[in-house]
Design brief:
It is built from three helices and eight strands; from the N terminus they run E-E-E-H-E-E-E-E-H-E-H. By secondary structure, it is α+β, with helices and mostly antiparallel strands. Helix 1 packs antiparallel against helix 2. The chain is globular.
C-alpha cells in the first residue's frame, strides 16, 4: 500500500471519451499504465459538457446528445513518480490537455486500512 501525505503533484489529463489507444478507451490505458507504474491512484471523471481546441461543444443535453463527452483523468502522487510517468502521457495523448499542479495530501488510506481503524 502506497502511503502519501504532504506535498504532492497532481496531473489532470483532459481528453475525449471516444479517444482510443489500440482499439481501447484512452482513459483506460492511462489508468492501467498508472497502476502498472505503481502510482498512488488514478480516477476518471466524465464531464457533462465542454469544448477543447476544436471549439466544438460536447454535451449530455438531450437535444444535442454527444457520444464524445469530455473526460478528466486525475492522478496524484509525489513529484518524482509523476514526472517519471509524463513520458508515457507524451506517447498516449495526441489530442488533449495535460495539467500539472502542486497539491497537498492530508489523508490517503486504503479501504482495508480504513476498516482496521
Amino acid at each position: 500500500m502506497t502511503r502519501l501525505t504532504g506535498r504532492a503533484l497532481r496531473v489532470t489529463i483532459l481528453i475525449g471519451e471516444n479517444d482510443v489507444w489500440h482499439h481501447e478507451a484512452l482513459y483506460t490505458e492511462i489508468v492501467h499504465r498508472a497502476h502498472r507504474s505503481g502510482l498512488a491512484g488514478a480516477s476518471v471523471f466524465r464531464g457533462i459538457e465542454g469544448f477543447g481546441a476544436s471549439s466544438l461543444i460536447h454535451t449530455t443535453r438531450l437535444l444535442s446528445l454527444s457520444e464524445d463527452l469530455p473526460v478528466a483523468v486525475v492522478i496524484v502522487d509525489d513529484e518524482p513518480r509523476i514526472r517519471a510517468f509524463l513520458p508515457q502521457l507524451d506517447e498516449l495523448v495526441t489530442e488533449g490537455l495535460v495539467i500539472l499542479d502542486d497539491c497537498e495530501v492530508i489523508r490517503y488510506v486504503g479501504r482495508s486500512e480504513e476498516r482496521a481503524e
